[in-house]
Design brief:
Elements lengths: L3 E2 L2 H15 L4 E7 L20 E6 L6 H13 L3 E4 L8 H8 L4 E2 L4 E2 L2 E6 L6 H9 L18 E4 L2 E4 L3 E2 L6 H9 L5 H4 L2 H14 L5 H6 L7 H12 L2 E2 L3 E2 L1 H14 L21
Parallel strand pairs: 1-10, 2-3, 2-7, 3-4, 7-9
Antiparallel strand pairs: 5-6, 8-9, 11-12
Length: 284
């Protein structure tokens, strides 16, 4: 489970699969990173009919600012969408599984019952596979085809539901600045779209502007103020990331900064809140 589609041709194939799948679904779970829900919104949501119930899963909530996550939950609720803030390292919560089981269609006349058919969609590395595993178990086996659905879709049996595997799609035509910001939360690879050092400089400048830099002191006991290259220099010396001659290895030190943010070492923080303009617009 958990395929990722990156290139235009593969993306088109993935979208065709999702389009064919949509008519068979009872529920769609869209996974977003709780630290950046707008940034990690799926680009395929318009493929699904408006009548299909959509629930938003705010994954990695343990890494996000809980107050801002609560704002996002209210934001989605006000717009008629159910939202769940979840730490997927603990698995899918029982309350979510129970709610999904409640989506099971039945006919009161004939008392016909079948498991709810759901699909999980999301951009790469937002926790889609972890949610799938939490719903169906890590050793789940495919249950074969579902009538009326293209053969390219795999189904797995969970508690009171059938879960469709779907590709993780990241639109390659989206804003390059958004791709760079995604690298900060490990939703794309920094070395694919630029150097670790440059990403760290840009990331640190953003954190400084939004007063999110205090985690540097908590993580490494260093001052996060000043020019971003100076911050990376301090990180490198603190961690011993040095080249011959005592020169700080900016690439290695920059990577340490990005990885610390992505894994929560810099503390629980959110990169955006409801009503904010797209955060990547701040980048050059």
């Amino acid at each position: 489970m958990g395929r990722t589609v990156w290139f235009p041709g593969h993306m088109a194939k993935g979208k065709r699969q999702l389009d064919a799948l949509s008519s068979a679904l009872d529920l769609l779970l869209e996974v977003r990173d709780a630290r950046a829900p707008s940034l990690t919104a799926s680009p395929v949501m318009d493929l699904f009919p408006r009548s299909l119930p959509i629930w938003t899963i705010l994954s990695k909530s343990d890494l996000a600012d809980p107050r801002i996550t609560a704002e996002w939950e209210r934001y989605f609720k006000e717009r008629g969408r159910v939202a769940w803030a979840i730490d997927l390292k603990k698995g899918a919560p029982k309350a979510l599984k129970k709610a999904i089981a409640g989506m099971c269609p039945s006919s009161s006349a004939k008392m016909v019952y079948r498991e709810a058919r759901i699909a999980v969609v999301g951009t790469p590395n937002v926790g889609k596979s972890m949610l799938l595993n939490g719903l169906v178990g890590r050793k789940a086996a495919s249950v074969g085809g579902v009538p009326g659905v293209t053969k390219g879709v795999a189904w797995f049996k969970g508690e009171g539901c059938l879960v469709a595997d779907s590709p993780g799609i990241l639109d390659p035509r989206s804003d390059a600045r958004a791709h760079r910001m995604l690298s900060w939360i490990a939703s794309t690879r920094a070395q694919v779209i630029g150097s670790w050092a440059n990403h760290a400089y840009e990331c640190i400048a953003f954190l400084q502007r939004h007063d999110l830099i205090s985690g540097m002191a908590k993580a490494w006991g260093i001052d996060g103020g000043g020019d971003p290259p100076d911050v990376v220099e301090r990180v490198g010396r603190r961690l011993g990331r040095l080249l011959p001659g005592g020169i700080v290895d900016a690439e290695s030190s920059g990577k340490a900064v990005i990885e610390a943010l992505a894994t929560g070492k810099l503390g629980r923080l959110s990169l955006e809140r409801p009503g904010d303009p797209p955060p990547w617009n701040e980048l050059e």
